[in-house]
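Supplementary Data S3. Sequence and structure tokens for construct A.
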Amino acid sequence: MSGGLIGSATAPADRFDLALVDLDGVAYRGHEPIPGAAEGLTAARGRGMRLVFVTNNASREPESVAEQLTELGIPTRSGEVMTAAQAAAQLLRTRLEPGAKVLVVGGQGLLTAVRAAGYRVVESADDEPAAVAQGFAPDVGWAQLAEAAYAVERGAWHVASNLDLSLPTARGFAPGNGSLVGAVRAATGVTPDSAGKPSPTMYDMAVERAGARETLVIGDRLDTDLAGARAGGYVGLHVLTGVSTARDAVLAAPGERPHLVGADLLALLEPHPEPTRQADGWWSCGSGAARVVDGVLDLGGTARTRAEQVDLVRAACAAAWAAVDEGAVIDAPTVPALPVDGPTG
């Protein structure tokens, strides 16, 4: 698969039979809907695309996630939700026999998944657990982190549902599970194994469950969602409604580059032009154009409407990535924010 942006002459909803959709920053933000999300996903389903919501959040059970999505205008069944808690339980199975003791640090979703996998949940390091399963929950505090550290220090296997440092909420970005895992790692010096993105484990599980022919991964984070797509060999769509910005995409490391870029989930319903390299060194995409000269990103073309702004982002990504792949070093401070906030069109 290409290391750069690809094109899609048809809308992704018509090309892919399964979409693996991230939640926070893609389908919703905290408890608030993201404009275009319900409309885009509903229309994609109407065209025959199946959806599985794949989240690094391990605090909630699939039924709770499905209920929230349904309330936001995205009717969802619990079987269409794959959580990092389920992936963590799957990872535990690779080393532990059923009946083993597991100290769970996290929310109800992780507790349910670990128990469903056949393990005995304990609350103290003094119970001599074979493993510590750690996932995010807003009420995780020092006492639970301390028990985790004591257990890991005594030899328990540390399994993290994910390593996201931040969590998007309606008020901004809050510390994520990776930040809490970092406290245990700092106390013990032990690096945990992680079941969540960017590992493609959840993606593979979801694809196997759905029996998909061609799968599209949709996410807002380059370092988890899109890195997981690259690692698993899936096409990744970066929507600009969450953590990683258009500028971040331009500066993305090769292993975190998306294959497609869109403003939001309405990007499922429209073709994606592929940037092309011109003889004079410019990369063009629609009305947008970009090139790199002596490590400096140079932009051209017009970008008034949202569609034109996205095309400019695509051209900028193509130009920057090609330059890096050819040995150049991009002068990051010269890369502008590349906002995508114009009128629809």
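Construct B, processed identically:
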Amino acid sequence: MGAGHDHGHSLADAGQRHRGRLWAAVALLAGFLLVEAVVAILSGSLALLSDAGHMFTDVLGIGMALAAMTAAAKARGGDRHTFGLYRLEVLAALANALLLTGVAVYVLIEAVRRLGEPHEVATGPMLVVAIGGLLVNLAAFALLRSGAKESINVRGAYLEVLGDLFSSVGVIVAALIISATGWWYADPLVAVAVAVLIVPRTWKLGMAALRILVQAAPAHLDVTAVRARLAEVPGVCDVHDLHVWTLTSGMDVASAHLRLEPAAEATLVLSTAREALHHDFHIDHATLQLEPQTPTPCGPSSW
């Protein structure tokens, strides 16, 4: 085994570091969400309502991130969960992507309906709340930015807040246009723009989560290169049954069978192979099985 145990602890420690920021972000967004939803209904603004729906998924997404981090921190292995509960983070990210897709579809359907029958909108409250939403999203964005590089779930929440920033700007623009020209179509058109903005980000997040769940090789790793590097380790004559996958954000895992040359020293081969995986591919959790030394000529295995 490699240094997977220590790496698992480092991931849980990273979750602990980001938990306070997540709580602060969700408190900000949840508090303002209530205000935005009420004003959206009273003002009749679909753009503001879509922004409120987007903010709701932000709150729900961050809540799921917090739940996943808490569960992972409480279950670092054991007889039933030998890898801990790190996959909960990935499942939460996938659920978050599905929720965002649902919001986008609803807004698009409602916007098409309103394009046929434009609704009057109370632009004063709409503008004030949209500006408030922009400020709240800026604060949440700053809180989540650092954690987005370490966690797929924090990245999902971060991307949602980033999208909310743009949607808040769109609502502000729509309110100004309607106020200045009385062109009511600006409201559903901005709502459509917000919905379209959601889709590419949710697709990317959902695909990243699915890639982890189906245990595909990490996109940034060349499995052929990993195999070749292990084969270069002195004393190794064949590498087979190589598997590389991602357990959760920032934790790539590998397993492989290494067939040894007759004169190879097992302890040295194992330590060198571990170091190669760590140094060249940042894989710190590896299970390496050394095939028994044999007097027969060294060559590829039949399986």
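The chain is about 65% helix and 10% strand. The domain at 4-213 is CATH 1.20.1510.10 (Alpha-lytic protease prodomain-like).
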